[in-house]
Amino acid sequence: MIVVTGGAGFIGSNFVLDWLDAHDESVINIDKLTYAGNAANLASLAGDKRHQLIQGDIGDTALWEKLLAEHRPRAVVNFAAESHVDRSILGPDAFIQTNIVGSFKMLEALRAYWSKLPADQASAFRLLHVSTDEVYGSLSPTDSAFTEEHKYEPNSPYSASKAASDHLVRAYHHTYGLPVLTTNCSNNYGPYHFPEKLIPLMIVNALAGKALPVYGDGMQIRDWLYVKDHCSAIRRVLEAGRVGETYNVGGWNEKPNIDIVKTICQLLDEMRPRSDGLSYATQISYVTDRPGHDRRYAIDARKIEQELGWRPAETFDTGIRKTVEWYLQHPDWVSQIQSGAYRDWVNANYADRAGMDKACA
Ligand code: NAD
Ligand code: TYD
User: Fold this and answer.
1) Is the CB of residue 296 below 6 angstroms from any atom belonging to ligand 2?
2) Domain boundaries, the chain
3) Which of 39, 90, 120, 214 has a 20 to 30 A CA-CA distance from 349?
4) pLDDT on residue 355
5) Of 31, 57, 82, 133, which residue is the catalytic one?
6) Which residues of the chain have pLDDT under 50?
7) Residue 342 is among the residues annotated as catalytic for this protein
8) Ligand 1 pocket, 11 CB below 6 A?
C-alpha cells in the first residue's frame, strides 16, 4: 500500500481518485483537513476498503510511527502543504510550520522507518515529494523555461517554504540515502480546485455576478497543466523515476492571466449565458497587484518526456472546457466551500484593493 499526504486537497484528492481507478493498491490518506482539505472530494470512495482518510498532521511524529508500523507502506506521496501565495503574504506562519517543519518531521519519521526495512524493501521504498515551479523564481519574457538545473530563487513565503522542503528532501537522500523523488510542477487547474486560486475564483465569481479581480495589468504568465495530467506524471515518476532525481512537470501552456480570465468568460457566455445578454467579461476589474508578484513561470518538461515518456493528455482548450463544465455541474460542492471562513478570506484579500469597485465578497 501507499501513503498519500494532503489527499483531501485539490491535487491530492484527484490523485487518490485516479490512483484507485487505475490500481487496487490501497491508499492511507493523511490530511489535516485545513480550510483547503475537503473530505467531500473523496465522497465517491465512501465504503471503499482500499481508501482510509486519517485526519492528522504531517508534523505529528507519533502518528507517523503508528501508521508506518501498522501499514508498512512501500511509498509515500507528499502533497500536504499550505499552497496559496496570497495567504502566505498575509500570514506566513502556517507555511513555515507545515511546509518546512512538517516536512522535516515527516522526513525524520520516514528515515527511522526506512532504515529498519529489510534490504529489498528498503531499496524499493520511495518518498515522492510534490513541489512547484515557483521555487525557481520569476522569468523575464525572453528567458528560457525552467529546467531541473535552474537555480532556486523563491520570491514569496510560499515558494520559499516549498524550496526549503525540497532542499530537506534532497539532503535526506544525499546524507542518509533515503530513496526520494521530487517533482516540480507548473500551475494546475481542474475539478475540486479551491476557489481562492485564479481559475476557480473567476468561474465562481462570474456565476455569482461578482467582480473578476485581475491583479495589476493581468500580463503575468503562468504555465497551466490540467490536474489529471499532473497526477499521471506523478504516477509515472513513482513507477520509473530515478532515485534522487527531480522532474519538472508542465504542459507547455504559457498564458497571461488576462487571457485565462477572458477564455473563462467566453466559455461561460457559451455554456451559461447571462440573463441580460452581456458578456461575463464586463465583470473584469483590474485591482491592486500582489506584492512581489512573479511575472512569468514556464516549465521545460523535456526530461520527464524523454526519460519517462510522459506527456500531458489535455491541451489547455480541452482542459479548461472540462473544468468550466465541472464547476457548472457541481454547484453544491461550490456552495459547501463558500462557508463563513471562505467569506472571511475573500474579505481579507480583496476588500482593500483599489479597483474592487464592484462588490466581490
Ligand atoms: P491544497 O491547498 O488544495 O491542498 C493541500 C492539502 O494539504 C489540504 O487537503 C490540506 O488540508 C492538507 N494539509 C495542509 N497542511 C497539512 C498538514 N500539516 N498535515 C497534513 N495535511 C495538511 O493544495 P494543492 O493545490 O492540492 O497542492 C498540493 C501540493 O502540490 C502542494 O505541495 C503544492 O505545493 C503542490 N503544487 C501545487 C500546484 C498548484 O497549482 N495547485 C502546482 C505545483 C505544485
Ligand atoms: P494563483 O492561482 O494564486 O496561483 P500562483 O500565484 O501560485 O501562480 O494565481 C495565478 C495567477 O493569477 C497569479 O499571477 C496571480 C493571479 N491572480 C489574479 O490576478 N487575481 C486573483 O484574484 C488571484 C487569486 C490570482
Assistant:
1) no
2) 2-192+226-253+295-314
3) 39
4) 87
5) 133
6) 359-361
7) no
8) yes
CATH number of 2-192+226-253+295-314: 3.40.50.720
> pLDDT tens digit string along 305-318?
999 999 999 999 99
Residue keyed to cell 503562468: 222
Confirm whether 133 is a catalytic residue.
yes
At residue 136, what is the residue type? Y
182 within ligand 1 shell (Cβ under 6 A): no
Report which bound ligand comes closest to the CA of 185. 1
Binding site membership of 319 for ligand 1 (Cβ less than 6 Å): no
Provide the residue count of the chain: 361
Q: For 263-318, write each residue's pLDDT tens digit.
A: 999 999 999 999 999 999 999 999 999 999 999 999 999 999 999 999 999 999 99
pLDDT of 361 = 44
pLDDT of residue 357: 62
Task: Choose the residue to mutate in 99, 146, 222, 259 for probing ligand 2, maximizing ligand atoms within 8 Å of C-beta.
Answer: 222
Q: What is the pTM of this model?
A: 0.98
Q: Where are the alpha helices (DSSP H) in 9-134?
A: 10-22, 61-71, 85-90, 93-95, 103-115, 119-124
Q: What is the pLDDT of residue 242?
A: 98
Residue nearest to atom 33 of ligand 1 (CA): 83
